[in-house]
Amino acid sequence: MLQPYSPSAEPLTRMADGTVKQISPFTGTEVWTVPGRGNRPISHPVAEVHTLTPAERTRACKFCPAHYTETPPEKSRVVATPDGGFERIDALPASELFDTVAEFRRIPNLFEILSYDYWHANHGYEVPDAARERMEAYLADPTGADHVARVARAKLRASGQNPDTWETMDDAARREYLAAFFAGGHDVIVARRHYTDDAVDSSSLAGSGTLTPTEHRAYIRLAVQATHDLYQANRWVRYVAVFQNWLRPAGASFDHLHKQLVGIDERGVSSELELQRVRANPNLYNEMGVDYAAYRGLLVASNEHAVAFAGFGHRYPTLEVYSTSATCEPWLMSRDEVDAVSDLLHALHAATGADVPSNEEWHHKPIDVDQPMPWHITLKWRVSTLAGFEGGTKIYLNTIDPWTLRDRVVARLEDLRADRLIAPMAVGEECPTTPNRLLYNPVLGR
């Protein structure tokens, strides 16, 4: 017997008084934008501005270039080449850390969300051969042994333990403690600059949008490669969460540009909620994502392999970038396809500004899912604080509606493009509105 037609709730509804009600077609999250509540500043400028000293340019925090030995041994770094390109160097010995300047470094997080002990105790995970060989080679170098000992003592101290405990450990205990430095599943990708190169005072923080488009491509490529590496290194990883917290109101420990990658043994709530809906409608990301955004006039930017729009159904003002590639896994995409996503994401960061707290969150198809899901990235402006109303009703107040967000960002993108500070792209009304641009759905390629 045929079931009666029952249309789903409209993602965007504008009420008579101007209130915009939003429902995410992917998670079901309900969001309202009430007129007048968005009339507040969104930036968080540096509280105390002072003239920079020469030392601050390289040692303002532990992520700065002068402090390579204060973080765990890096897994890889990206350096600039004389021809204007970039080169990746893997497993650099401690004695060579300061021979080159790292534009981006991939290092283990000193305090992992899921520790090495978690994987070892719950899944029997052991240090992979490649990681063990790298650890032994690093420790065989006296400079490397001194480096890890210093970081280990610092971790013990920060954990509330006696740093002198390190001296009482035998070699086996030390190697067990150091396993997380070489075989952990929580990495950080750190950019070189704390402040922009032309900064004169502490207000000029270097964010994603202050990178050049070429630098941002190198940053994204390293994150994509690291994501793949974390899957390959641990067979119990079901999903690698990739995110960037910018500024302290958005959860950053340091006001220094960095991304985090965390391997987890579940798909994650967001992926599970999306998967339920995508199984019911495999073309959901087109129909209720990019196509719907185009139909409602929310497209922001577009290039050959990616499209960006003002998102809806998010707790915070959110910009979204979708890869249009038929390939779902970013590490299997062509360089041009990855760079296309990078260019739009970089432009959105530049339009947002380095003084706006934000969360960048990556979404890709978990490796154990058979349903195609496109790679996409959300950029959330953390310009409000969740409070009692949201907690009691699970209706979230987003202070900027999608159309206002779209107009604001498009105007800024046009200025940035005119000044050649972002890569070439279509902006606003120039973006094509052809349906089904996302080719992740294999039916569309037939």
Order of helices and strands: EEEHEEEHHHHHEHEEHHEEEHEEHEHE
What average pLDDT do the residues reach? 92
First and last CA, distance: 31 Å
Widest sheet, order of strands: 5-4-6-7-9-8-13-14-12-11-10-16
* Biggest β-sheet description: 12 strands, antiparallel
Helix count, per DSSP? Answer: 12
Let me know the number of strands.
16
Poorly predicted ranges (pLDDT <50, ≥5 residues)?
none
Our estimate of the beta-strand percent is 15-25%
Write down the Rg. Answer: 23 Å
Helix content: 25-40%
Shape by Cα distribution: globular
Helix/sheet category: alpha+beta
Could you walk me through the main structural features you see in this protein, from its secondary elements to its overall organization?
It comes from Actinomyces ruminis. With 446 residues, the protein is of the alpha+beta class. It has twelve helices and 16 strands. The chain has a twelve-stranded antiparallel beta sheet. A four-stranded mixed beta sheet has the order 1-2-3-15.
